[in-house]
User: Fold this.
Amino acid sequence: MIIRKATSSDVSKLFALEQEIFTSENFPLSRGSFAYHVKNNLVYVAEVDGNIAGYILALIKRANAKIYSIGVSKLYRGRQIALKLLETVMNELISMDFKQTLLEVRTDNEVAISLYKNFGFSIKKTAKAFYRDGCDAYIMELSL
Ligand SMILES: CC(C)(COP(=O)(O)OP(=O)(O)OC[C@H]1O[C@@H](n2cnc3c(N)ncnc32)[C@H](O)[C@@H]1OP(=O)(O)O)[C@@H](O)C(=O)NCCC(=O)NCCS
Assistant:
């Protein structure tokens, strides 16, 4: 498995992976959004045997970088791929001199909450009815 920065030629595969992983309530990214983020933000992919097994997107436009999305294909879960993607993006954020990173996660997404806590994020507050279906979000934070 290799972790590398995504390029424009990954956009179609990233879009296909997004559709496998996220349903419409989770605001899946469009093909155009991936094309934009690959150029303007941090997108890393985990590649296994030439397939994109997972990706992470961090937004770097503001003072606090934000982990916008992370997803791993069902076929490849439970192999520490998400942890490695987080580690790679955090190292890049540290090298860019960010001091802190934030994210939002559905309060019913126990797997993701466990992943982020495991990595060192802590819950700062709850945003009520943050998602389209009324689900709350935890705002989680990590000092870098
Ligand atoms: C969340 C997700 C990215 C985890 O990917 P993954 O590569 O399988 O995760 P890892 O193997 O790196 O696991 C890392 C940690 O996450 C947590 N975790 C992963 N799978 C878990 C499960 N089934 N149950 C509970 N905790 C779990 C654990 O803390 C795990 O650490 P451990 O192995 O030391 O117990 C993946 O399940 C996914 O894509 N889910 C759908 C998309 C999503 O919800 N994204 C997050 C919101 S944007």
About this structure: The first helix runs from residue 11 to 21. Residues 2-143 form a domain with the Aminopeptidase fold (CATH 3.40.630.30). The pocket of coenzyme A is lined by residues 21, 69-72, 77-83, 105, 109, 111-112, 114-115, 118 (CB under 6 Å). The mean pLDDT is 95.
